Amino acid sequence: MAPMTTSVTGEALHTDLPIGQYFENMVAAHPDNDFVVYPDRGLRWSYREFDERVDAFAKGLLAIGLEKGDHLGIWARNVPDWLTVAFATAKIGVVLITVNPVYKAHELAYVIEQSDMKALCIIDSFRDVDYVKIVRELVPESSTQERGHLDSERFPRLKSLIYLGPEKHRGFYNMPELLLLGAHMDDAGGRRAQ
Length: 194
Description:
Blueprint: E1 4-6, E2 13-15, H1 19-29, E3 34-38, E4 43-46, H2 47-63, E5 71-75, H3 80-92, E6 95-99, H4 105-115, E7 117-122, E8 125-126, E9 129-130, H5 131-138, E10 160-163, E11 172-174, H6 175-183
Parallel strand pairs: 5-6, 5-7, 7-10, 10-11
Antiparallel strand pairs: 1-2, 3-4, 8-9
Helix pairs in contact: 2-3, 2-6
């Protein structure tokens, strides 16, 4: 891997560290500095806040049955939690499969089949593509089966659907639920004593 150069603190840094270790070092060195800023949404996450969000989401993924080596797809435009998913999957060794946000149903189906996805994260829509509607058409079982226990005839490896937002969709986990699940898990993946 080529050395990374950054100027987060105004100084040029060079590192041969993997991105996860580099990020952990930045959290330790600059916990209160901004890491994610979306001015149009009024959203700011410091290194510490983002790290806590990533940890909770990673533990939430573990809680719903994802394991190191499993494949998780993300079908979304540039939204803040795209980064959360990317860092969380890297942290727990889940392979992230990125899906082009303008894909149509047949293209998504091909990616799900070819990538052995165990879980798929989506947003509501992008341009003229209604993601929830397309997933419902491709995976009709998602409307009737318990979330996390999907048994799709067409996609037998796909077990979980995740909506990257607070809205609830039958058969999907949403972001707040996974963050809450993760917040109740200890670092070893077990439930915290209450």
